[in-house]
Structures are given as C-alpha cells and as structure tokens.
Structure prediction request, 227 residues.
Amino acid sequence: MGFAGILFLVAFAALIFVFIRARKTSQLAYIDKYRFHSAIRNKLSDKYPHLSPSDVNLVFDGLREYFRICHKANKRMVAMPSQAVDMAWHEFILFTKAYDNFCQKALGRFLHHTPTEAMKTATLAQDGIKRAWRLSCAKNGINPATPSKLPLLFEIDSRLNIPDGFKYSLNCRDKSSPNYADGYCAGHISCGGGCGGSSGSASDSGGSFFGDSGDSGGCSGGCGGGD
Prediction:
C-alpha cells in the first residue's frame, strides 16, 4: 500500500473516531436534558410523601446519572444501588413507547430493568455494584479507592431518608456515622472486602468520562470482573 493509501486509512479512521465521539456526546446531552413524565413525579410523591419537589428532582438527577453510567459501561451490567431511583426507573418503563424511544436515542439499545442490588454483606460487593461504584465515582470526580464523599447514586437514599432505601457510608468503622452498624461500607467496594493497602489507579481518580479507563479495575483486592 502506498503513502496515499495509508493517509486515506488514517483519515478514515479519524473520521470514524470523530463520529463516534460526537454520537456519544449527543447521547449524553439527550440524557441530561430529558424531561420525565409528570406521572412519574406523582408516583414518587405517593410512594414517598415526605419528599419535596426538589427532592423528587434529585431522584430524577439520580436516574439520569444511572443512564449515563450505563451508557459508559458499554452493555456491561450495572447494578442499581438506590431504591428511590429504581422506583423512578420502573415507573418510566411503564411508559413503554416513550421509554423505548429514550433508550434508542440515549443508548442505541433497549436497557432492560435491573432490580436494585445492595452489597452482598456490609463489606463485600458484587461485580454489578463494583461497576456502579467505579462509574459513579468517575462521573462525580471521586477516587473510588479513597473516596472523600459518596457519589449521588450511593448517597441519595440516605440523604432523602428513603424508608426502604440502601444506606452507604464511607467508613463503616466510624462510630460517628449515622449509618454505623446499619448500612453498607461504600469505602470497601473497590477493595473487595479488604481495603488495607489498596490504591486506585490514576484512571480511577476521575478524568474524562468518555475514556475507557473509567471501568478499569485499578485497585487490588478484586476490583475487576466483567460479565
């Protein structure tokens, strides 16, 4: 192959990359701007009457964030760590035509409902929760191995005082935590049950949400595990 042929292939590959990147950007923008049906808001208010309108908006923010990390996961299973957000998702699915249209525009595929899933024990997480944790942390600019705060999907049930919600804490050994001895240790998720000496890779500390590194298993103790 001559120089002109090589140059053509390089240019063609660059065009494909630009197209894919632009498509991803468009899909994520569609997720961020999507307006959920008012009936979903009403169902949330009926289920959790203590929620204010701004609280319900926060649940919708959580649902958008879940769709974003599912987009990033590239067809790998992502567990749903919030009961409140899961209910909003389930109600959205009942609008079958609208939901199917949303999935095609936002993800390029139909996203089947994955029931809420907490950690197996207070300090042991399954692959789906690990992936949700890593991607949620990347979305929020948090190092998953040494988090300074909880990402929205792992904080929202506790923050909104959801009665049947999953409550996570950064350190289950912290007796000052409101979830001490009554919740899940989010700080252990990246470490597979033993945080001593674990460290996140540079790619896990945040960075671009477009990069492939956001779902890497950068810490010791069992971060990895594809489906």
User: Anything to note?
Assistant: The beta strands are 168-169, 184-185. The chain has a mean pLDDT of 77.
